[in-house]
Specification:
Layout: H1 44-47, H2 49-97, H3 106-130, H4 135-154, H5 158-173, H6 183-209, H7 214-235, H8 242-266, H9 272-279, H10 282-294, H11 300-326
Length: 339
């Protein structure tokens, strides 16, 4: 949470596409418009390596930011880490975007407030999860939220296959009953996935009501303000320790600011379908980050479980994209990472 990658986690996080809705984050926080036609002309295929690299770099940044957040938790706790991440990300986005606060309707503000609260919940739940279970399994369970949303939105029988494949992966991941994973961690990860699905919906609505990334910046500020009391209660003055602030800022940059920027640039030339498939690789990136940074090794069964969920996510994405093409429609959703 992969927020947002905001987010997130949550940011915050990556995932299957849905009908005219985005897919986690961070996510990333899901304000860039996906599916923008490329203008690369005849060299489009060769030139696509650039945006593909940007998206992959953003995904790596999100998951390594999440791994760094886990190392910060002994200092300030999970809620303290989320508070620092959201605060720093909000400050940076507000400074860069300088969103206009006047001239918006009550419905506009209602949407951005719900988006911000959803973002805060997604990140909070995801970091509670990774405090209890390894990063790879946590992101795999979180991805189920967008996957379920994709299946429900498409209403195609073939997506039942992808849902079944994902459930097989979850069954394997839990060792047939989640006896190998902390039950509370599993519950928090599934809750983060639910919030990721809600985040996707309100990210799209916010993107339609606010220009550029203004809605994201305002929602991030709402998320930071909403979460601040929780961080103060859990961590208090620990949030003001210079070393802790520096590490928290690093988490915010890696998990929110950097991936948002990279994906925004990539989506100007990258088809939404390709972007969504790449987001489906988040569990694998998370498992890699967990192994390299946190020494969280996966068993062969856990690796197979993650592979099944990734395959289900990619299948759901491609099915949805194929449906859109059959209708002659362009995908105009917005995407974002979770956790």
């Amino acid at each position: 949470m992969n927020t947002p990658s905001a987010a997130s986690s949550s940011p915050a996080p990556a995932a299957p596409a849905t009908a005219s809705v985005p897919t986690g984050g961070a996510p990333t926080a899901g304000v860039p418009t996906a599916g923008v036609p490329t203008t690369d002309g005849p060299g489009r295929r060769g030139g696509s390596l650039g945006p593909l690299g940007l998206v992959l770099a953003g995904g790596v940044s999100v998951q390594f930011g999440g791994a760094l957040a886990v190392t910060l938790m002994p200092r300030v706790g999970a809620l303290g880490v989320v508070t620092l991440r959201l605060l720093v990300a909000a400050i940076v986005l507000l400074a860069v975007c300088r969103p206009r606060v006047r001239g918006h309707s009550r419905a506009d503000w209602g949407t951005v407030v719900v988006f911000g609260v959803t973002m805060a919940a997604m990140n909070g739940l995801f970091y509670q999860a990774v405090a209890r279970i390894p990063l790879g399994p946590a992101v795999t369970l979180e991805v189920l939220g967008p996957l379920v949303l994709s299946v429900l939105a498409s209403r195609r029988a073939v997506n039942l296959i992808w849902a079944g494949l994902a459930l097989c992966g979850v069954f394997l991941l839990g060792g047939g009953g989640f006896s190998s994973l902390d039950p509370a961690g599993v519950a928090f990860a599934l809750g983060a996935g639910t919030m990721w699905a809600a985040y996707i919906i309100f990210s799209a609505r916010t993107g339609r009501r606010f220009p550029q990334a203004d809605g994201l910046a305002l929602a991030m500020a709402v998320a930071a303000v909403a979460f601040l009391p929780l961080g103060i209660v859990e961590s208090g003055s620990k949030l003001l320790v210079p070393t802790t602030v520096a590490l928290g800022a690093s988490v915010a940059v890696l998990s929110s600011v950097l991936p948002y920027t990279l994906e925004l640039l990539a989506l100007r030339r990258l088809p939404a379908s390709t972007f969504a498939v790449l987001m489906s690789l988040e569990p694998a990136l998370a498992a890699t980050a967990g192994f390299l940074v946190l020494n969280q090794a996966l068993s062969a069964t856990e690796a197979l479980a993650i592979a099944l969920v990734i395959a289900a996510s990619i299948g759901a994405v491609r099915t949805q994209v194929g449906r859109g093409k059959a209708k002659g429609l362009e995908s105009d959703g917005e995407f974002g990472t979770g956790g």
